[in-house]
Amino acid sequence: MNPAQSIAQQFLQQYYQTLMTNKMALIQFYTNASIMTYGGELYNGLKAINEKLESLAFQKIVYKIDDMDVQPGAVQNSLFLFVTGSLQMDDSDAFKFSQSFQILPNGQGGLYVHNDIFRLVY
Length: 122
Fold this sequence. Notes:
alpha+beta; protein transport; nucleus; NTF2_dom; Nuclear transport factor 2
């Protein structure tokens, strides 16, 4: 496993674990420069992303990653990730999903989600 894959795997583990245990804590992965597209709708900045996270109606969610691809990003030390998998909300049937992330250095030794595109696959 190359370093980019290792970083991507660690990031995804943290991201989805946070989403499964405390969805409101997910906001820590974003900054005011972040952009999220969720099901075709665009959310710019922390306030809009936080409002979207608050609107997610599930009480319990379980994610399973089926596959992940990673590429070096355009900015030094950034990564572009593409994820496919399945999720189950509350007691519903499982849904397939795809999600892309562009993660950038945050200037403090860590990374943040600059771009996030999520889509359920029907």
